Amino acid sequence: DTAPTGSLQIRDVSKLFGSFKAVDGINLEIQKGEFLTLLGPSGSGKTTLLMMIAGFLDISHGDIALDGSSITNIPAEKRNFGMVFQGYALFPHMSVRDNIGYALSVRKRPASEIRTRVDEMLELVQLQDFAERKPTQLSGGQQQRVALARALCFAPPVLLLDEPLGALDKKLRVEVQEQLKDIHKRVGTTFIYVTHDQEEALSMSDRIVIMRDGAIEQVGTPTVLYERPATKFAAGFLGKSN
Ligand code: ADP
To answer: Which of 64, 155, 168, 176 has its CA 20 to 30 A from that of 73?
Structure first.
């Protein structure tokens, strides 16, 4: 029994709401440790796809596998993927330390193990001096890093991020982007990142998936997408007109 390494195989996945296809036949191989961004305008199916990967939404058609084994019928709580969403919802009555260690205490891990692991996470997100504070005593960017540490604390095979910078102002977004990129490099966890912001996608991702009407318009590295957009839509969406 080996630990999951975090590669994902998405095979012909669709999601129907009634007769409306929100996600339409997605095929995608995501490498272990990759920073993959789902980029597209509002309504293109990014969040729906992410929710199916998380296990919060049933798949209408197709299959999703982790390291080659299907997880389509495995419930969200057993998939154990980390999640960071826009309204990161830290527990307001708990210290930073207890927020970060929450998932481990729920899993009844020994206190000494939790302490060591939380210390590692505090170091990872550079919040060693803030362990005993409450979330309300932190800046928006610091709260964001607590949410990230909390999601990474139980060493998930995959971290799902849905517009996590949406609530931050422009200057802070750039700062947090840099930190996020750095943290990704250091932990080596597979990140799947949803955004409609092309700058964010271009600056952080190993690969970008451009989505349109529930389908993949183009997949590539930021350089390839920027220099050789395959369609007018891709070019327009990346802020280039050619
Ligand atoms: P994105 O994340 O790219 O903005 P979504 O995945 O949220 O797009 O939505 C894709 C499409 O599916 C949209 O047209 C949206 O209105 C529709 N949709 C999403 N969730 C539901 C739902 N629960 N019921 C019906 N339609 C939905």
So the answer is: 155
ipTM of the complex: 0.98
Residue 167 lies in a domain: no
Residue 109 lies in a domain: yes
Cα dihedral 141, 139, 116, 121 in deg (nearest 10): 0
Q: Is 53 in the pocket of ligand 1 (CB under 6 A)?
A: no
Q: Is residue 18 part of a domain?
A: no
Ligand 1 centroid–CA 213 distance in Å is: 10
Nearest CA to ligand 1 atom 27: 17
User: Is 128 inside a domain boundary?
Assistant: yes
Q: How many structural domains does the chain have? A: 1
Where in the sequence is the domain holding 149, given as residue range(s)?
Answer: 86-155
